[in-house]
Amino acid sequence: MSSISAIAVSGMNAAAQRLDVAASNVANAFTTGALPAANGAVPAGEPQAYTALQVDQAAAAGGGTQVTVTAANPSYVAAYSPQDPFANQDGLVAAPNVDMSQEVVGQMIASYSFSANAAMLKAGDRMTTTLLDTLA
Predict the structure, then answer these.
(1) 1: pLDDT strictly greater than 60
(2) Among positive and negative, which fits the CA dihedral 38, 41, 45, 47?
(3) pLDDT tens-place string over residues 81-120
(4) Helix and strand numbers, DSSP H then E, in the chain
(5) What contacts 8, CB < 8 A, 6 or more positions away?
């Protein structure tokens, strides 16, 4: 595989991973849990809130990109929901630290990035075909 193709494919894989993470965050945005204690531990038997994820993208050696998925920091925020059975005495629960507007932007970026890398892959194919046609 040529370096153009490898770079384009790595970009397409990164875009797909970014979309997967955004979809997971959106799907679990309202999966609350018990508010952890000061030491970070969730009380025994209580549900834990979904841990929001984030994508870190960096240049790969030799070209292309690599993606690392990590937990968002902070992974939860305190939300007022006194009707939840696991709410603390103040009516607070742990809610995933998901910003829906940022997730939508992330999905759009993934879509545009995937399209751009697909176009680069097609351009590389056309260049190779033209080169081979001139050599024949």
Answers:
(1) no
(2) positive
(3) 999 999 999 999 999 999 999 999 999 999 999 999 999 9
(4) 2, 4
(5) 117, 118, 120, 121, 124
> What are 124's two structure tokens?
């590389």
Residue type, 105: V
Please measure the distance between the N-terminal and C-terminal CA atoms of the chain and give it in whole angstroms.
Answer: 21
- Assigned token pair, 24: 């997971």
Q: What gap in Å lies between CA 98 and CA 121, rounded to an integer? A: 33
**Average pLDDT value for residue range 56-65:** 89
Q: What is the pTM of this model?
A: 0.84
Instruction: For residue 42, name the pLDDT band (cuts at 50, 70, 90).
Output: confident
Note whether 98 and 22 are within 8 A (CB): no
The identity of residue 22, as a single letter, is A
Q: Concatenated DSSP letters for 53-110?
A: EEEEEEEPTTSSEEEEEEE-SS-EEEEE-TTSTT--TTSEEEEE---HHHHHHHHHHH
Q: Average pLDDT, stretch 28-47?
A: 90
CA distance 59 to 99: 26
